Amino acid sequence: MCIKALGGPKEGAAQAFNEIESRFSSLKGRKFYGVLHNGEYRACTAIIEGENPEVLGLETMVIPGGKYARIKIEDWEQHTDLIGSSFEKMAGEKEADPTRPRIEFYRSQKELILLFPIK
Fold first, then answer.
1. Neighbouring residues of 113: CB distance < 8 A, sequence distance ≥ 6
2. Which pLDDT tens digit goes with each residue over 59-87?
3. Total domain count, the chain
4. How far apart are CA 5 and CA 12, in angstroms?
5. Can you give the pLDDT at residue 10?
6. Given a cut of 90, is residue 7 above it in pLDDT?
7. Residue at 34 is within a domain
8. What range does the domain containing 74 cover?
9. How many CB atoms lie within 10 A of CB 110?
10. Which of 14, 28, 48, 58 is deepest in the core (most CB within 10 A)?
11. How far is it, in rounded angstroms, from Cα 91 to Cα 116?
12. Which pLDDT belongs to residue 8?
């Protein structure tokens, strides 16, 4: 389930995540993702059995599988400035697959995994 971030990742990500989180009584056990593709950023969460995205007022999408390069950022809330440069580092080292998105997997409040799609 997801919400489009108005203004892209820099201007709209925080608001989009606040909006999606507000739809749930508890965030415990919930997985969150930031997905950037073709200039559009979405704040996403995995669907838990029994949830209805339409009732929650959320869109749905499938994050595609495939090969991804990855970088882990520890204590990410203090290092959000590293997200863009880390993706750029991977882009300089690997051949990107432009048909798939760049993904931020918020594994915990301390650990962020960045996934860069590669061929």
1. 70, 71, 72, 73, 104, 105, 107
2. 999 999 999 999 999 999 999 999 999 99
3. 2
4. 5
5. 85
6. no
7. yes
8. 68-117
9. 12
10. 58
11. 8
12. 85
